[in-house]
Design brief:
mainly alpha; 2 helices
């Protein structure tokens, strides 16, 4: 299988930073979303907040990687043009 050019842009460091930032976003969103749940039970409210934080974290994960791909590619092109 051939490797696409965009797959060579991100290093393992970029991916590690993305994982750490995504975990922090998940923790923050699951804490912030707790008051907006429908349950009075704290355990159920936390579970609902965690389930709601999953798609928000996935969107952040994709946005981070799209941003990093564009940024690294832009830096690479400006370095090549000089």
């Amino acid at each position: 299988m051939e490797v696409a050019p965009y797959q060579k842009l991100l290093s393992k460091t970029h991916i590690f930073i993305g994982v750490v930032l995504s975990l922090l976003v998940f923790i923050m969103m699951s804490y912030l979303l707790r008051p907006f749940t429908f349950s009075q039970d704290p355990l159920i409210a936390q579970a609902q907040a965690c389930f709601t934080a999953i798609p928000i974290t996935a969107v952040f994960w994709f946005a981070y990687h799209m941003f990093m791909l564009v940024l690294v590619d832009q830096r690479k092109r400006t370095k090549e043009s000089k």
